[in-house]
Amino acid sequence: MPTTKKENVYFGMMMCVGMVICMTVYNLFTNDLIGKISWIGIVVQLLLGFAVAFLLELFIVGPIAKKLAFSLPYDKSKKLFVILSLTFFMVIGMVLCMSAYGLLNAYLANGLGGQSLFESYLSIVFKNVIFAFPLQLIIIGPLVRYAFVKFIKAKAIANPLSLKV
């Protein structure tokens, strides 16, 4: 999809916005925190979550996921295989990293509630991966790819010098 560094930044930003909003709402719901956290607290969590997720996606998880996805032995000319492999590695990497971020937030807010650090982390990872993977594959991924092609790629085609980096 993205062919330049600038397009990659836009694409990553769009993915992160969608996933962070959905995953934040999901985690607030699963932890029974809706109505217990102020709107300002939720906005702060969204902004911090987005900043962490975007930096991870851009500098750590994204590059590693791309290397892993493109090192697998499959026909790279088939767009579906590329999307599925990239989605798999991105979701796994982001869930592992963002679950650690969530665990740190939970620990700082109210401790671990008697669970060990390892048990808490595994529980968070499990809850997040069962929601994040279908969310990315079925909803956010297709929506972002559609919006990216419609708005970012269309702009690049109309004005080829606008996105070159």
Q: What topology does this entry show?
A:
Blueprint: H1 5-30, H2 39-71, H3 79-110, H4 117-158
Helix pairs in contact: 1-2, 1-4, 2-3, 3-4
Report on this model:
It is a single chain. By secondary structure, the chain is mainly α. The chain has one domain. Helices cover 81% and strands 0% of the residues. The chain has four helices and no strands. α1 runs antiparallel to α4 and α3 crosses α4. It is globular and about 55 Å long. InterPro entries: DUF2798. It holds the Pfam family DUF2798. This is DUF2798 domain-containing protein. Keywords: Membrane, Transmembrane, Transmembrane helix.
Instruction: Profile the largest sheet.
Output: none
Overall domain count: 1
- Secondary structural class: mainly alpha
Strand content: under 5%
CA(first)-CA(last) distance: 16 Å
What's the number of extended β-strand segments?
Answer: 0
Keywords: Membrane, Transmembrane, Transmembrane helix
Protein name: DUF2798 domain-containing protein
InterPro entries: DUF2798 (IPR021529)
Transmembrane segments: 9-26, 38-60, 80-104, 124-148
